Amino acid sequence: MSARVVLVTGGASGIGRGIATAFAAEGDRVVIADRDADAASRVAKEIDAHAVTVDITDAASVAAAVAHVAETIGPVEVLVNNAGLVAGGGPLTSLPLEVFDTVVAVNLRGTFTVTQAVANQMIEHGTRGRIVNVSSIGARQPTAGLGHYEATKAAVDALTRTGALELAGHGIRVNGVAPGPVHTPMTAGLMDDPQARAAWESRIPLGRIATTDDIAPLVLFLASDQAGHITGAVIQVDGGQLLT
């Protein structure tokens, strides 16, 4: 397979960095899209990739970034919508509205905005592209205090299915990956608390928290020709947690 242009949002850290590193190792031309310009540039240098600064909640910023990638590297052939956050937690009855709005803006609006811009670019260039959205098993299994985050991930799953349906005629496949808890900088505080970590691991039949290396191979597969007849699927990588 020839090198493809792969755009990974939130690629400067965590799951996104793991995914970007895996695509780069396959020889693809990876673009790390992140609002942290310094971190994106640093990681891009480390893995021989490119970096673009973008605020995925701002449609103008997204349009400019996607156009810049096409002009300087080439039209996007694989999009990984990975950027996301939790921004805080708490019961629905007392969750600050600004936390809810922030999570919706990044996780849902951001995924929609980037998908729209890249899908239109793919259609314009006749690219039979691949889009992989990073969701969460929280879309299907609730955890008290995370309802705001989980609601956005359920919405991402819905966008994944609708995108698959609407874009199939253009040869564009859209799928999702739904991790359980993953050891990343975003979850480091939880993972470093022995009691909290043990509580999470007790919910996982395979008995351990995932690493980014557990997630990236499925993303690469869904973006490959081997998955040529798979679209609209959201596949969990959770050590069996949804079985409990």
Automatic annotation (TrEMBL):
Pfam family, one: adh_short_C2
Keywords: NAD, Oxidoreductase
Location of the Ketoreductase domain: 4-180
Gene source species: Actinomadura graeca
UniProt name for this protein: SDR family oxidoreductase
SMART domains attached to this UniProt entry: PKS_KR
Family membership: Belongs to the short-chain dehydrogenases/reductases (SDR) family.
